[in-house]
């Protein structure tokens, strides 16, 4: 039975949507490779996931460091049947005020690590003629985002990238799925330093991470190219498609500005 199990590699697999996805794979009898920065969180998550009777391997890496992302690829000797590029981060504030190195780190994590891992594992999958890749996009990728200008731009990259390589490899046996959540109740906002933003203060508007993961998992297994999690987010994206980008940016400015700013 162990030899027949498929393996999923999940970055950012110790919290939020990534962890909820890991649980879904575990329930479906996938062995797991979970990657995150903190070994203690990896160990805790491993103990939780092993209760499903699967094998869990942990790898501690900071994927905002390009060399660590490359080393990760060389350290994984197992056949990876599903790659989930979930690790991602944002930083809150006006572009002119934010620290350059923080924003470059976000670009490295959200874009460069995704490219490095996808390049490595897609070549292996193409050789077998089989595989699945789930890239964590966001509705942010369709909406210019003042107060998170760099983050939104990185997610626009992910959506474009996912669609383009999906077309290139449409006859390869590999499927590429982009999961596009909206604001979700995870630790993302705390790490981004945006707990004072209007969009976060309105806790009732935040989606449940488990529900988002379920929509993404089902889309991945069905081979869909993308899924917008939640009907409200779908409505927002479709409405934005009918508006000038400048108007969308103004709307996002108002939604994401600090609650104490008029």
UniProtKB/TrEMBL annotation:
Superkingdom of origin: Bacteria
CDD domains to which the protein is assigned, alphabetical: SDR_c
GO MF term list: oxidoreductase activity
InterPro entries per the UniProt record, alphabetical: NAD(P)-bd_dom_sf (IPR036291), SDR_fam (IPR002347)
This protein's record includes keyword Transport: no
Keywords: Oxidoreductase
GO cellular component: membrane
One Pfam family from the record: adh_short
Sequence similarity: Belongs to the short-chain dehydrogenases/reductases (SDR) family.
Protein name per the record: Short-chain dehydrogenase
